[in-house]
Amino acid sequence: MCRECYSLYGERGVRNGRSMSGAGETQLDPSVLGRWLDANDAPGGGDEPLLKQLKGGSQNTLYLIERGPERMVLRMPGARADAARVDGLLREIRLVTALSGTDVPHAALVAADDTGTVLGMPFYVMQAIDGWSPMHGGWQAPFDTDLPARRGLAFQLVEGAAKLGRVDWRAQGLEGFGRPDGFHERQVDRWLKFLDAYKVRELPGLDEAADWLRNNRPAHYKPGIMHGDYQFANVMFAHGEPARLAAIVDWEMTTVGDPLLDLAWALLGYDGEEPRADGFYLDMRGMPTRNELLEHYEAVSGLSTENIDYYLVLANWKLGIVLEKTYAAGVRTGPQKGGVDPAITETFGSMIPQLIATAAGLARALPANRPTGGR
Questions:
Q1: Residue 374: is its pLDDT beyond 50?
Q2: How far is CA 161 from CA 46, 248, 284, 290, in A?
Q3: What does the alpha-carbon distance between residue 143 and residue 233 come to, in Å, rounded to a whole number?
Q4: Domain residue limits, the chain
Q5: Does 2-127 carry CATH code 2.60.120.560?
Q6: CATH superfamily name and code, 147-365
Q7: 35 and 45 in contact (C-beta within 8 Å)?
Q8: Does this model's pTM top 0.90?
Q9: Those residues with Cβ within 8 angstroms of residue 349's Cβ, 6 or more apart along the chain or in another chain
Q10: β-sheet bridge partners, residue 66
């Protein structure tokens, strides 16, 4: 049974019910959305949109919009989203607007409503990407068997980070989007406080890595846009070879900070100079050496990677803390309906301590109080 109701913002255009997504989920009214799309000169004008809720996107709800031959994707907070989630989507709208006209691979913005008056929540519509994600079955052909072709995926991944980091964020209207001043000075205390809010176990090496990070942070750096969770899991590639990055996706953690942290995040599938033989969520055989990727990043971004060790310590340490929140939720709720997948809890149970131990091990192997900096 489905009934039309007033949304949280007191506007029509949202239906809550079972027919599309299950009880309590948001179901869009195609006629309301269609009129709004027409008013914003969206592709497929005049046709009432066909809507299909998509899987994926841990922070927001995604819908595929089909209007005749045109395909777009709508992104909005879920029906029970709190103020922080809504604010996060408003930041995304500002970001994708700023990326318009740049060479950063992304799903181009079609139109956005930042008021919440159309569908009851702020939302934006972007072009659908004709591409594939390695999170849906691993490497697509020919990259599943052609190792020389697979190399190109890694080069494209770091090139995307380089292009994002070199964007003139002030010229693109992102002044105030982040707090680049004191970025590294805030990292350790901020993420330890974040962890304290849900800590359920001891993580050996946590404090050792934290102390090293405090004592070895960069003396200076060039601020830029950083994705915040930059890895194979959050990009899409174009079909076929040669490898081509089609879009960076999932901008929830994006800010203006140090873009070299995105590079380090993208290198978490490496043990030193070589890609990992096992223990990573993708098969990394055939990938370039770490040094090859660093050289490519420098050539595209114009930034020095001479202090990459610091960023690798921070990336491993920070990712462990971020993932621990999901693990802690699984421990607290157990395998209840709507809770964390027990398989994820089991995987994170060992993965997270390894990330923290890797950070501490790297820190232990590096000289303390080394000169830091960059271009």
A1: no
A2: 38, 9, 19, 15
A3: 16
A4: 2-127, 147-365
A5: no
A6: Aminoglycoside phosphotransferase (APH), C-terminal lobe (3.90.1200.10)
A7: no
A8: no
A9: 327
A10: 50, 71
